[in-house]
Protein 1
Amino acid sequence: MLESYLTLAICILSVVVAAGGALIVAHVIGPGRRGRVKDQPYESGMPVVHDIQRRFNIRFYIIAMLFLLFDVEIVFLWPWAEAFYQSCTNGTGSIIVDDGTVATKGFLLFGMGMFFLILLLGLVYEWKKGAFEWD
Amino acid sequence: MKDFLVTQFGFSLVLAALVFAVIQGAVAYCIYYERKIAAWTQDRYGPNRAGPLGLLQPIADGLKFVFKEDYIPGHVDKILFVLAPGIMFVVCGIGFLILPWGGQLDASTLPWLGSHLQPGERMLSVQVVSLNVGILYLLAVMSMSVYGVVLGGWSSNNKYSFYGAMRACAQMLAYEIPMGLTILVVVLTMGTLRLEEIAAEQAASGVWNVARHPLAALILFITALAEANRAPFDLAEAEQELVGGYHTEYGALKFGLFFLGEYASMITTSALVVVLFLGGWHVWGVSALTMEATSIWAVLAKMTVMAGKVAILIFVYMWVRWSLPRFRFDQLMRLAWKSLVPMSLGLFAAAAGLLYFGLHRSIAACLAVNAVVLAGAVAVASRGRTPITGRQANLVRQAARNDVPLAEVRT
């Protein structure tokens, strides 16, 4: 197990080094000529009107917020899926939690059902509130 | 040295280098493949000057990326500007490490290297790293590419780049949710997060997951298209409105790395779809393609089958790109939040229910719940009047607010 992580670390490190190396090499061997016009942002050849540090559409914030809510909930589903699978297929119909408590598969399904219901309510609320509308 | 190469650790490192090199080459030829498919779709020749059939074109392109002027414009945030393509390259270089390419390999069948070993003495898994959190690692790495896109767009200090990055970010975030949920459906069916076990289970039973959950497979494929920013989801780099999108200000190798990232993520996501739903390296009725066949030739056959399946899926990606027009942004968001998210939530709940009753491997039961979820989605979608969007919807709202007939607002 630990060996796997060591392999992973070595691979990630070598890819990072390769990325840095490629960027440096390309910078060194390419030609380099500066120019006044080359330093302007590209706006289809028109003179630049204003910079980008201004307000943009609020909907992007809403999408980011919705994502945060849903993604945190989905992260919670992963360990549950594994535990629920164990409880359903190990023949006893339950799993034993670390502190010795026995959790039956019905209990696990009920718990997740409640959680899922709240998630669903949130989805319906956002839908009705128009968070998914883009006009 | 000879013995080190046949330990799992040494073998993994060699395999990593090998697969990395093959994927870099495959990316170069993916671009050639794409241009040829585009040409075929549009009834033209495609690249045909560099070498026979234009086969040397990718090499010429690659050399040009390296030898062009690597310009960092004066108006950009220099550190982030250089960091962004680096992140894209790293993401594409570490995602495939978790993918299973060919089951188990009996080290004694390796010519020369394993000649001192007894048959069956040492089994190596043809996978760089085998983690118990397999799929989660892949999801985490793939969502890292959002950083490359957003930092690239933000640091460029260019309006096109900025809007492209915002769009790409919103799109990748929105489509990550149905992607995670459909993968959870597979986890609830197979009971493991290890990709190699999911592939082996499908090979052992001979039933690919696509036969159980075709709807989930379709949703995963659609979200994979969106995550890779491919047409019809390529709003982030819609040429007609945003020039190049988030990489407008990039050139030379830094642009090349963004390009590489896009194509490498196509390969990784296709391989993920193949492993989760299309049986990995398995094909029915071939004895070399079973879990028991572990000789080097069987492993090579498995790798070929896996690569072939990935190539077919990539062909579908390109076919879709050159056949379908691009979505509008409101359509994109509606597809994600109003159909894919509810459908994948429904599939997840259904899969949990099936598991409770012990029916999670039953093809008929799984197909039935897929059909029910699809029917429900169609019923919701077709309810009410035809959806109106954009300016039309604003007009309707305006008419309602001012309490006047629609025709009057329109004039």
Note: The CA atoms of residues 1 and 19 of chain A lie 27 Å apart.
Protein 2
Amino acid sequence: MTACQFVPAYQRGDLARPEMAFDADPLGSKLNQHIYFSKEASTGGNGVAAGGCGCN
Amino acid sequence: MKSKTLMALSASAVALPGVLVSTSAVSDTPPTAKIISYRASSYKEDALASEALLAGSPERYDIEIHQLRYSSPIGEKYSISLDSSYESMSGASPWYTVKSANGDTKVAMSGASIYEKRRDVTASVKRYYDRGNFGASFTISDENDYRSNSASVDGSFTLANDSTTLSAGIAHSDDDINPTDAAFFNRILSANKSTTSAFVSVTQILNQFSIIQTGVSSTRAGGYLTAPYKLSDHRPEERNQFTWTTSWRRYFREQRSAFHANYRFYDDDFGVRSHTIDFALHKSFSRLITLVPNVRYYQQQAAHFFTPATDFARTMEFNSSDYRLSKYDALSAGLKFNIQLGDYTLVLSGERYRTSGSSNPAVIDFTRLSAGIDYTF
């Protein structure tokens, strides 16, 4: 397994691509996390947005 | 040399209830453009199987969701974002379960007359520094029977080698519960609960094409944690939750693809323990079209006080037949298209979610479809 490499700024273009983001779709992620929060017993760790009851 | 480039890579994926996570890899530096985004979504749960229905309507929830987001730089050191959602829901909900003579679990549903609306608004501001950022947000979520106010702060700091970012945050929410028809159904008239969370994470550049982020979060919920619309549902008034999350991103230049892998371990003192793993591939076919297939697998253990049939005699201090606290697996798959047309990006996506292995037949399968547009200016 390779160790971490120092990557100079001029070689970080691919890392900075939008599709490489940890959350590339804020609205889509917010909706999905709210659905999972409402329908599963687990929550947290993935940016759960704006609570709500999720009672039903 | 400023460390903005690394900060651009360290958008926090480990966040908290009430925290709206950073939007993209480039959003931890002040954004260079304003973006308005809109999504319309349809969420539809499959009907309960007829052989499992004891009473009520087999029709489950249909939800229409509208989302609007605005983000903008403010000067050179600040950014703001506003998010709002509006949901309208209708359908029936599981009420209680019984064991039939042949040992099968039957579900009594409410009538299909539940109509609810939920609105939420989140306002966020972020201040950028040479080696980090600091943000705060406030969220209000409002339903006719439920209101939640939450606030959070978070920050990130880049270490001297410009390859590592440390992030941390805390959040708190206060929720008020006022069940409808409380007197008629002998429900609690009003109650409240509060939730406090904290997280820490580290983001590390591995090489020119890959980056990893790992973090832990701890959440304590206290107050009325029982489901007010379930019959004979009694839960502890405290819940301590822990998550460990790891996310990995790898870019394949020749294939013009970004591979995403995420794993979450979850454990709480209700006895629920779960594993979640998901993969996505962001494949660009040209500068205009991106296709994103994804798959997600979720597996959870039952809460220690879960009972397949509702415990009307209350033989245990705590008990619940809520399907969400049962042991089950869930597999979902989705597909998303992004089509860029000048300053506009059209977004179409869908997801199918199926469960298996539960002792409660009320556990859900659902389909979600979404369409929307982003305007950058």
Note: Chain A is about 25% helix and 0% strand.
